[in-house]
Amino acid sequence: MNIRHPHRRRLARTTSVLAAALLVGGLAAGCGARDSDSSKSTDASAPCTGKSSSSASAPKELTLALVPSGDSKKLVDTVKPLEAALTTSLGITVKGVITQDYQAAVEAIGANQAQIGLLPPLQMVQACQRYGAVPALQSVRKGKSTYAAQFFTNKPDKYCSDKPAPDSSGLLFCNGTASGNGPAGLDSIAKAKGAKVVMLESGSSAGYVFPAAAWKADGISVKSDLDLTQVGSHPASVLAVEKGDAEVGVSYWDARSTVVADTPDVKAKLVVFALTKEIPNDGVALSGGLSKEWQDRITKALLDYAATPEGVAALNAIYQITGLAKADPAALAAAQQEANLVGAN
Length: 345
Fold this sequence. Notes:
The protein is α/β, with parallel strands linked by helices.
């Protein structure tokens, strides 16, 4: 997942974005209404567990906020099985709304225009610390609720201490990175000083925050010590290095697989040579305006659905999710601390 999409939105803007999304997406919001930076800093000195409302009445319907990682019209269709399953399980209507960006989804949760949000880790922390949203669940992919950001290059002779070798899919790795488990190979990233490097915008956990923190630990500023270009997506980062526009790129592990079908040269040209610390996966945040009972009911309904074959198929179609697990507030706080370290609050 990806969880891309750095934008800032005020609440008034959020409302108009949600209204536009309803018209474009064909979904009607019940109670009102994937990485971004924000205009407000957050303090990650302690894990944030959110809150619940002791005086909240039972909701008559619920709104689920999502952001498209690709075709928004396709997401409108793929979210329908999840809507139907939650509606049946909870006994009230659950409707999905496609917001323009993750910051809009955070603000919608803060205004109780949406009660459920599928958000990247940093935005889960924002929603929790600013608005008391509960970080309830985290996505599972390939059996993990965390992942590493990867550094890749078209100059393996410079960055690899061993001979690059392919995995079962034919993608190349060196420096002990083939497992995808970080950290690995970080002693090689200082070699990028002065080189052309492509990253995502500053709110992307894997595309900026964790790689920037790793470089900073080596005394390298991404803004002053690298010839930096920033792009809007992980596939764009991969393609920039494949084309030779930069010699090093960063992305989530393994974003190369998203472009191989159309750009098969990626297999021969690009080598992953380092991995960051593990990053919490994206997940589910619940409005602090809900009662504890309803927060628990929604969490259970999502976990139960994710444990079924049809649930896995539906979640995989939405965000390539293969399961759900209880959120780890401490891991989310650690991710925010990395963002604070590099000034990407």
